[in-house]
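Hi team,

As requested, here is the filled-out complex form for the adenosine-5'-triphosphate run. I kept the field names the same as last time so the parser does not choke. Let me know if anything looks off before we queue the next batch.

— J.
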Amino acid sequence: MGTLQLEVVTPDKTVVSAEVEMVVCPGVEGEFGVLPQHVSLLSALKIGDLRYRVNGKDENVFISGGFADVNNNVLSVLAESAELAGDIDAARAQAAKERAEKRLAAHDESVDQTRAEAALQRAVTRLQVAQLR
Ligand code: ATP
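And here is what came back:
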């Protein structure tokens, strides 16, 4: 069946660089799968779980949205932040979740609602992905 190259990069580092059997990406319009020899594709990603398979074993990565680019059997994911499930600090995500919930509950005009909602979404999703390790 073959493999494809997966690269997950953030401004700070490369989080994944591996030959994989398949990838499922959290596209803004729903999840989509990428198999070896996929046609070229560019898609925006939402905050979510990116799943990939190596030697029949699934791995999960949190990504904070970004872009997926498929070209010549390479899937490049560019994200503002990304962590392998095993690298997620659940206590930090829990604290971020509570902070965001307090900000949203305060109905304070100085609070940027959209920003607080995105922070909450990142924290909730990190907690979900951390459970998959
Ligand atoms: P926080 O408020 O805890 O910083 P955040 O959602 O604002 O959360 P990001 O801006 O997405 O954080 O990420 C900033 C940096 O911190 C990135 O390098 C990201 O990988 C890392 N990071 C954030 N939260 C966690 C976590 N719970 N576990 C591991 N790394 C994290």
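Two things worth flagging: The chain has a mean pLDDT of 97. DSSP finds two helices and eight strands in the chain.

Thanks,
J.
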